[in-house]
């Protein structure tokens, strides 16, 4: 439980709930995707004739889902990778869908911690910005141009 307590949004009580629902033995799940599917936190994929009909998640353990979504809302208030993921998704898809996506990510982290041991290593709240700097720069410049400003970019010298 101390290892799960290192995940942002997960406290001792939520770690107890997750362990009681999932169990400590991860050998029964071949991968994290199987665990997420069992828990009902995988995005649905209903498509017909090239038209996407619904992305609704399937039914799983209500107690586990409730605990992980609560952890996702708690993680959203932190300056961590999970908080940045929540804010990035909530801007495009809404807070509820973002919470389910972050809950899925937390469950994958739980799987990896229980399978391999160790503690959670956060990627940082600037991970998404550092991953593709060119895209972030283009998006921000475009937003300024939409506000009627002319932008001239120069690369700052390294400190």
Map the helices and strands:
Blueprint: H1 12-22, H2 32-39, E1 46-48, E2 51-54, H3 62-76, H4 81-93, H5 95-116, H6 127-131, H7 133-146
Antiparallel strand pairs: 1-2
Helix pairs in contact: 1-3, 2-5, 3-4, 3-5, 4-5
Summarize the structure.
This protein has 159 residues and is mainly α. The chain contains seven helices and two strands.
How would you describe the overall organization of this protein?
- The chain has helices at residues 12-22, 32-39, 62-76, 81-93, 95-116, 127-131, 133-146, and strands spanning 46-48, 51-54.
- α1 (12-22) runs antiparallel to α3 (62-76).
- The protein starts with 11 loop residues before the first helix and ends in a 13-residue tail after the last helix.
- The longest helix is centred in the middle third of the chain and has 22 residues, at 95-116.
- The protein is 55% helix and 4% strand.
- The protein is mainly α and 159 residues long.
- It has one domain (4-146).
- The protein is globular.
- Strands 1-2 form a two-stranded antiparallel ribbon.
């Amino acid at each position: 439980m101390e290892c799960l307590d290192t995940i942002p949004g997960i406290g001792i009580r939520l770690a107890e709930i997750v362990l009681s629902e999932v169990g400590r033995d991860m050998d029964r799940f071949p991968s994290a995707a199987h665990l997420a599917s069992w828990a009902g936190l995988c995005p649905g994929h209903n498509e017909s004739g090239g038209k996407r009909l619904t992305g609704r998640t399937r039914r799983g353990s209500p107690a586990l889902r409730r605990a992980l979504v609560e952890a996702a809302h708690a993680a959203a208030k932190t300056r961590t990778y999970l908080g940045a993921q929540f804010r990035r998704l909530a801007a495009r898809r809404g807070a509820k869908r973002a919470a389910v996506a972050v809950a899925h990510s937390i469950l994958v982290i739980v799987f990896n911690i229980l399978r391999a041991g160790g503690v959670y290593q956060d990627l940082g709240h600037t991970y998404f910005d550092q991953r593709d700097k060119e895209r972030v720069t283009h998006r921000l410049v475009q937003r300024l141009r939409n506000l009627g400003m002319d932008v001239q970019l120069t690369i700052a010298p390294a400190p």
